Amino acid sequence: MKILVTGAAGFIGFHVCQVLLSRGDEVVGIDNINDYYDVNLKLGRLAELERHPNAGNFRFIKLDIALRPEMEALFAEHKFDKVVHLAAQAGVRYSIENPHAYIDSNIVGFTNILEGCRHNAVKHLVYASSSSVYGANESMPFSVSDNVDHPVSLYAASKKANELMAHTYSHLYDLPTTGLRFFTVYGPWGRPDMALFKFTKAILEDDPIKVYNFGNHRRDFTYIDDIVSGVIATLDNTASGNKEWNGKKPDPSTSKAPWRVYNIGAQTPVNLLDFITTLESALGKTAEKEMLPMQPGDVPDTYANVQALIDDVGYKPKTQLKEGISNFVNWYKDFYKI
To answer: Looking at the DSSP assignment, which residues form a beta bridge with residue 83?
Structure first.
C-alpha cells in the first residue's frame, strides 16, 4: 500500500513510519519541521528513517498541511491508498499562548487532509485526536461513549472539532475515518515538552523539576510501541458504519456513517509522584521537586477505557512503566552522549 503519514518527523509519526516501512509499505512522509521544539530532534528522526533497511520505500517532503494548493497537489500526484494524519500543533499550555497556531494547523490543515482524501479515493483516514477532549469530564475511566462537550483548552477544542469534521465527511462522502484519542504517549525519541523528557533533563542537570497540582495528577502513560501497534491495527481495519446505531439514542463513538473514535491508552493510570520515583530509579538520582498548583487548561487525571479498541482491532498494551522509562532513559543518554 501507498500510505501518507503526516507529522513524519514527529514523535508518533516517526515510529509509525518505521513500522510501515518494516512491513513493506510505500510511505510518503510530510512535516513542516516547525520550531515548537528542538528541530535537531526532528532531523534526527528523519535521519533514522533514511537509514532504515527499506528506506527506498520512503520519501520525505517538507510541507505545511495548512497550505491548500500544495496539499491538493500532493494528493493528486500520489493517489494514496490510506492516510495516517498525525501532524498537528500539539500542547495544551501552548494553545493559551498562541491560539492561532492551532486554528491554522488543527482546523485549516485538517480540512485540507479531509478534502485530499475525499477527492482522491483514499480508502481510510486514521487521525490523531487526544484524551484532552474529555476536558471537565470527571467520570473515570474515560469512555468513548461519554459526552465530551466541555473542553478546557483550545487544543482540546480543536481535536473535538476534528472528530466532528471527520464525521461530516464520512456521512456526506462515505469516507471511512477513525480518530484515536491518545493518552500521554512516552518513550524513545519523545517530545521535549512532555513531562518525562523535561524531568529527565532536569534531574541529570541537577535542576529542580516542576511538579504541578502538587503531584496529585494521574496519567495513563502509554508506551510508544503500544501506541504504534494500535495505530497500525486501526489502519488495517477500515472503519465501517454501525448498522445498530440509533439516532434517538445516539452513541457518540459510532455512527451509521463509516466513522469511529477510540481511546488508545495503557488502561493503567499512574500517580505523578510514583512516575517520578520510577524515573529516579532508572536514572539513579533523586529529583529536587518544586511543588506547584495546577496549570490553566490542565486536567487532574486521565484514565482510558480501551475496550472498544480491544474488541474491534485486538489492541493490547503490554509495556510496563518501569521498562518503558528505562528504554527512554537509555535512548536519552545515547542521543545526548551522556
So the answer is: 4, 125
- Which residues are known to be catalytic? 155
For residue 279, give the C-alpha cell. Answer: 524515573
- As a whole number of Å, the end-to-end CA separation of the chain is 40
CA-to-CA distance for 132 and 91, rounded, in angstroms?
A: 10
CB 269 within 8 Å of CB 301: yes
pLDDT at 298: 67
H/E stretch holding 82 reads: strand 82-85
For residue 209, what is its C-alpha cell? 523539576
Strands 289-291, 177-182: pairing kind: unpaired
Cα separation, 95 vs 272, in Å, equals 23
Predicted local distance difference test score (pLDDT) of residue 212: 81
Residue with cell 493517489: 79
Produce one character per residue of 18-39: b if its CB has 16 or more CB atoms within 10 Å, e if not.
bebbeeebbbbbbbbbeebbee
Q: Is the model's pTM score more than 0.70?
A: yes
The pLDDT of residue 191 is: 93
Residues of the chain below pLDDT 70: 92, 297-301
Give residue 147's pLDDT. Answer: 87
pLDDT in tens, 218-230: 888 999 999 999 9
Distance CA 84, CA 57 (A): 16
Tell me if 8 sits within 8 A of 46, measured CB to CB.
Answer: yes
User: Measured between alpha carbons, how far is 89 from 108 in angstroms, rounded to an integer?
Assistant: 11
